[in-house]
Amino acid sequence: MTTFPVFILQGDAYFIGVSQREDYALNRPAAEPGLWLLDPGMIYLSHGAFGACPRHVMAVQNEWHERLERNPMQFLVRELESHVDAARAALTQFIGADTDDVVFVPNATAGVNTVLQSLAFQPGDELLMTDYAYNACRNAVDFAAERSGARVVVARIPFPFRTADEIIAPILERVTARTKLAFVDHVTSQTGLVMPIAKLVNELKQRGVDTLVDGAHAPGMVEVNLNKLGAAYYTGNSHKWMCAPRGAAFLHVARDRQKFIRPLTISHGANSARKDRSRFLIEFGWQGTFDPSACLTVPEAIRFVGGLLPGGWPEIMARNRALALAARHVLCAALNIDEPCPKEFIGSLAAIPLPDAAPDALPRLPLNEYPLQDALRLKHKIEVPIISWPAPPKRVLRISAQLYNSLPQFERLAEALTKELKNR
383 phi and psi, to 5 degrees? Predict the structure, then answer.
């Protein structure tokens, strides 16, 4: 029987209880920070932004680079497909999918664009999304609607909130007979919420609406089982919580929807005479010359990172969630505010509402970063994003909890944050 770690509060200390071994405190990293290349002089609390790849995984990627460069013709023409197949097999085992239903894409934004630009929408069709959507994906939905004459319908979801119904009801209320596709997050980017995705997909399916799920943050943060979920389209990143190299993402398409989906780059596969595999795999398997090393390294990222704790990936996900919950508690207490949502909506990310920014403390172009974020980085050596939510001057601080983090780092953030807020 699998035993999962449990979040325990003992006095002022936070622990993960794990059967058959001693408890260990969150006041130290769960894995040696030196396994990553992160600057030891900086407290890095922004893993969710772009991930961080361990040294060992990067070394394996370099081995793939060298194998390719020894004979590019041999590797790319004669060997690559079998290597990609093996990488997809390891990935699909991790995400609970069939290998014939998953292809590699550069990132989740590319996956979202692939689906939106493949599907044919008509004037009057409605594309349903939430105001939690990642900005790049919101732009992709807007572009698809503008090009076709369809209409974007946005469901407004509150933050803070207290129940799942406050998320689900606004979405379902906006479904009409004209709704052709619903775009929803598995884990929201700005607010770090684990959405009730299974119920959403099921309720939308019962209403005859296909769902495109942005799972950019989900793999490696929460359990992902795509066969069980049953979404028509799902895209996710491997470079975030799975710690694979950047450039390794995936797109999962239900078998009966694959005939509608074409890659963003139409290449040799479009008129291939091959019959040994699906057109879906053939077209996505080759879109021109590219560096496949990130995708080919995914199996080693799954193996290596999964081996850093005795309980494997279930323990890693539980430990990171425990740390995120503990850190959120510390920060909300320091700011004297209520935690903005119940803990069941938290994975390895958490957003903490901040006081509205003063007119002279708004985000500055071109980086669009708040002066407060600059102060935390430059004065306190803490890298953590401050995000406009839902729009300036309102803002949230978003924390990430990864194995190299520990609770004292978030306590230092709380101290620095309260000090800086007094001056802003």
Answer: -100, 110
3 state SS of 211: strand
Which residues of the chain are under the pLDDT cut of 70? 1-24, 424
Residue 40 CA to residue 36 CA, distance in Å, equals 10
Contacts of 254 (CB under 8 A, 6+ apart): 101, 230, 231, 232, 233
Q: Give kind and range of the element (H or E) at residue 298.
A: helix 298-306
> Contact at 8 Å (CB) between 272 and 263?
no
Collect all residues with Cβ–Cβ distance below 8 Å to 391 and sequence separation of at least 6. Answer: none
Write out pLDDT tens, residues 229-270.
Answer: 999 999 999 999 999 999 999 999 999 999 999 999 999 999
Q: How many helices (H) and strands (E) does the chain have?
A: 15, 15
Condensed to tens digits (0 to 9), the pLDDT of residues 206-234 reads 999 999 999 999 999 999 999 999 999 99
Amino acid (one-letter) located at 257? R
Are β-strands 13-17 and 43-44 bridged in parallel, bridged antiparallel, or unpaired? unpaired
